[in-house]
Structures are given as C-alpha cells and as structure tokens.
Design a protein that fits this description.
heterodimer; A: alpha/beta; six-stranded mixed β-sheet; 9 helices; 10 strands; B: MetI-like fold; 8 helices; binds adenosine-5'-diphosphate; binds magnesium ion; cell membrane (chain B); MetI-like (chain B); ArtM/GltK/GlnP/TcyL/YhdX-like (chain B); transmembrane (chain B); L-arginine ABC transporter membrane protein (chain B)
C-alpha cells in the first residue's frame, strides 16, 4: 500500500527527515509516535506531498509520487488527511464541506454527493448537523466532520496528524471512537498521535521517530512493554 | 461675516451636475483599478517571477509618487510624446485607475494571504484543483477581509477625485471654481460642494458599515 525508501526532507539547511524507510500493508493501522519536533508531521505530509520530499522514494498503491511526472492530484484523491486543527471550510455548511470535493473532483451529482454525505454523517454520529456551520460545532464535532469530509472522497488510505491534540479532554473519546470504527472497517491508516492508549489498542504497528530518524518499529504489545532502544525507553518513561 | 448664498442660486443645478460627473469618473476609475488590481494581486501571490517583479515594481511606483504628478504626467506627457490629444476625462480615469490598481492590488493580496494556510492544505489534500480552490474556498473567505478595506479605497478615491479639477475636468470641484470666478465670490460655492463631498462620503461610509455588519453576522451563523 505504502512503500517509503530513503525519505529525506530538508528545510533549507535543516534536515528534518534523515532517510526514513518503511512500508504499510493494506488494512494496516500504523501509529507514529515520538517527541515534538522529531519530524512526525513532516513525514505524514510527505506522504501526500503537502511537503515535497528532498530525496527518496514514496510509492502509494503502486503510484510513484516522487517521480517527475507523478499526477499529484490523482494521488491525493486516494489519500484522506485529517489535521490537528480540522481546517473545515468555514463558509460552507457541514453538508457543503462534505459534498464540495466529491462534486468538484469526482464528478458526483448533487443528489449522489448529498446521499453519501448523510451516510457518512450518520457514521460519525452527526446526522443532525448537516445544515450547521463549522463555527457552531464543538472541537470534537468539527474533527468528526473533518474525518467524514476526508472519507467522502472514498480514499484508500487515511492520514491523521494528531487528530485529538487540539481537543478538550472530554471530546477526545468521541473522535478516537470514530477512528477505531474506521480501523475495524479495514481502512489503511497512518496516525501521528500522543494517545498511547489508542496506539496500543488499535495500531497494528508503532513507528518511533526521533530527530528525523526511524529509531524503532514493532508491534504495540512488544514495543510498549519491551522497547529495544534506550531512546524509545526514555520517551515512553516520559509519556506513560 | 457676509455670507450670501442667494447669488449662487442660479448656479446650483450646474454644480449639482458635477456630482454625476465626479461619480462617473470615480466609478470608471474604480472599475479599472479593481480589474487591474486583481490581476496584479494574482501576479504577486502566484505569478511567475517576471510578472511578480513587475507587479511589485508597479505598486511601488504608483504608491511612491504623488497622484497629482501621475495625473499631470498623463495629461501633458501623452500629447507631447505621442501627439495624441488626450481629453481630461481619459487622463483622469487613466491616472486614477492606474493609481487605485496599485492600492487595490495590495488590499486583495493582503486579504488573500490573511486566509488561514490550513484552508489551502485542506483543499490540496482533497485533490481540489487550484482554480476551483481559489474561486470557491479561498476568495470567498478573502472577500470578508477585502471588502471593508475596499470601501475605504472608494471613499479615498471620491475625495481625491477633486484633483482632476487641476486639468480642467468639469467635476464638482472645478464647477465650484468656475461659479466662484463668475460671481466673484469663492467662499459660498466651495462651501456648497464641500457639503456635497461630505454627504457623498457619509453615504459611502454608511453603506460600508452595513456591509461590514452583514459580513460579521454571517461569521456567527
Ligand atoms: N515549513 C517548515 N519550514 C522550516 N522548518 C520546518 C517546517 N516544518 C517543520 N519544520 C521543522 O521541522 C522539524 C520537525 O517538525 P515536525 O515534522 O512538525 O515535527 P513533529 O510533528 O514531530 O512535532 C521541526 O524542527 C520544525 O521546526
Ligand atoms: Mg506535528
């Protein structure tokens, strides 16, 4: 599904990713953890080319994103992304947020797009909010709408960048529950998160990044109970 | 104090006509300014380097020199250089249009760049093409930043329009001078058009406030 080899990303002189290699199988849920500033967001953003990789190869569903003539827009249509700060379109209703891209990009008719949107809203538990504007929603509701908006493009892969970090504590669960459901439905997911409970419970694999290097990866049960590297040990001691 | 407005009465219709003359040229100049300004703003934001450099230089020159100088240059230099005898009206809309384009391009650029960068990223992540993103996602949000500042520009332009009296264009201001000369009393006609300018600006201000309130209301919905 995802194949990453020797991924390097520099901002000017600052090398933020120093040669990351990994792959993700279809249906796999991967949690990316690590200290702040270690390059987790940059790694995720390289996967849908919101950041242009400096070197290395990224292939998603067999499509080489790092080749010169890659169709970036076509690739992005298959990759949903959920941001820490939601980034809903504030001038559109919830329904508008969910139907705009499918109509504009996938050529859905209005009726088809709205029917799909209603289905997705039911799935994230927000059927009654179709006509609401984002500014009237709570953080947890906004993030669930953002997830539904990404799903409306029928992606094969979902990227999450700290989806619960901007939320009040009491709203974290409602968002994680939606993500758990999504994982159960077989969606391939890469989730940057500080929610160790979520990583342990839902992820099939954990990637530990530190200073732009993929230090350690493994199954969550072994990683959390017996990390192999001292840096992972130190990090886990701080957060657990 | 010996103010005497009675002598002025026969000239009032002549001066009132100046309202239309002034508004007509302000409107045309604004239209040119808005079209050209939008183009320049797009150059500045996402144009290739030569166009971006041009837009920046253009803005710098037109904001960095007096408007009356630009007006005089166009009015006097065009006939001297090309032999084409440019009318006061054309000079006026050219100078004011080109000048306001510089200011409007800055207003639009700032308005667009004030839209949260996350909006662009969200649109890109969904695979929305650039033009559609600009038209349906970014510009509607930028509009809320742009409109109040644009209203200010309209007001400034309306007041500054009096400058065209210096090249003999028969706007409100010029008419006051003509009337003043023919009745040997300057003060009353000047006061009279002053009042008209003030009323025009007040009307524009009220319209601007109304628009702003509308925009605020639509934020809360
Ligand atoms: N657009 C950018 N320009 C310059 N430096 C950046 C940019 N984005 C991120 N960085 C730097 O890259 C490093 C990694 O950032 P990031 O990927 O956001 O880390 P994380 O998500 O793990 O906290 C940080 O030092 C950050 O300052
Ligand atoms: Mg981050």
């Amino acid at each position: 599904m995802i194949y990453v080899d020797g991924l390097v990303k520099s901002f000017g002189n600052l090398e933020v990713l120093k040669g990351i290699s990994t792959d993700v199988k279809p249906g796999e849920v991967v949690a990316v953890i690590g200290p702040s500033g270690s390059g987790k967001s940059t790694f995720l953003r390289c996967l849908n080319l919101l950041e242009q990789p400096t070197r290395g190869t990224i292939r998603i569903s067999g499509r080489d994103l790092t080749s010169k003539n890659a169709d970036i827009r076509a690739a992005r249509q298959e990759i949903g992304m959920v941001f820490q700060h939601f980034h809903l379109f504030p001038h559109l209703t919830v329904l508008g947020n969910l139907t705009y891209a499918p109509m504009k990009v996938k050529g859905f008719g209005k009726a088809q797009a709205e029917e799909q949107a209603q289905k997705l809203l039911r799935r994230v538990g927000l059927s009654d909010k179709a006509g609401a504007y984002p500014s009237s929603l709570s953080g947890g509701q906004k993030q669930r709408v953002a997830i539904a908006r990404a799903l409306a493009m029928e992606p094969r892969l979902m990227l999450f960048d700290e989806p619960t970090s901007a939320l009040d504590p009491e709203m974290v669960k409602e968002v994680l529950d939606v993500m758990k459901d999504l994982a159960k439905s077989g969606m391939t997911m890469v989730v940057v998160t500080h929610e160790m409970g979520f990583a342990r419970e839902v992820a099939d694999r954990v990637l530990f990044l530190d200073q732009g290097v993929l230090i350690e990866e493994g199954r969550p049960d072994t990683f959390f109970s017996a990390p192999k590297t001292s840096r992972a040990k130190d990090f886990l001691e701080k957060v657990l | 104090m010996n103010l005497d407005f009675s002598q002025m009465t026969p000239y009032i219709p002549y001066m009132l006509e100046g309202i239309w003359v002034t508004l007509k040229f302000v409107f045309v100049a604004l239209l040119i300014g808005a079209l050209l300004g939008t183009l320049l703003a797009l150059f500045k934001i996402s144009g290739p380097v030569p166009l971006r450099a041009f837009a920046i230089a253009y803005t710098s020159v037109f904001r960095g020199t007096p408007l009356i100088l630009q007006l005089m240059l166009i009015y006097f230099a065009v006939p001297q250089l090309t032999g084409y005898d440019i009318t006061p009206f054309l000079s006026a809309i050219a100078a004011f249009g080109l000048n306001s384009a510089a200011y409007i391009s800055e207003i639009i650029r700032a308005g667009i760049q004030a839209v949260d960068k996350g909006q662009v990223e969200a649109a890109q992540a969904l695979g929305i093409p650039y033009r559609a993103m600009m038209k349906d996602i970014i510009l509607p949000q930028a509009f809320k930043n742009i409109l109040p500042a644009l209203m200010n520009e309209v007001i400034t332009l309306t007041k500054e329009s009096a400058l065209v009296s210096t090249i003999g264009y028969l706007d409100l201001m010029r008419r006051a001078q003509v009337v003043g000369a023919s009745m040997y009393r300057q003060f009353e006609p000047l006061l009279f058009v002053g009042l008209i300018y003030w009323i025009l600006v007040m009307i524009l201000t009220l319209i601007g406030r109304r628009i702003e309130r509308r925009l605020k209301a639509s934020d809360i919905r």
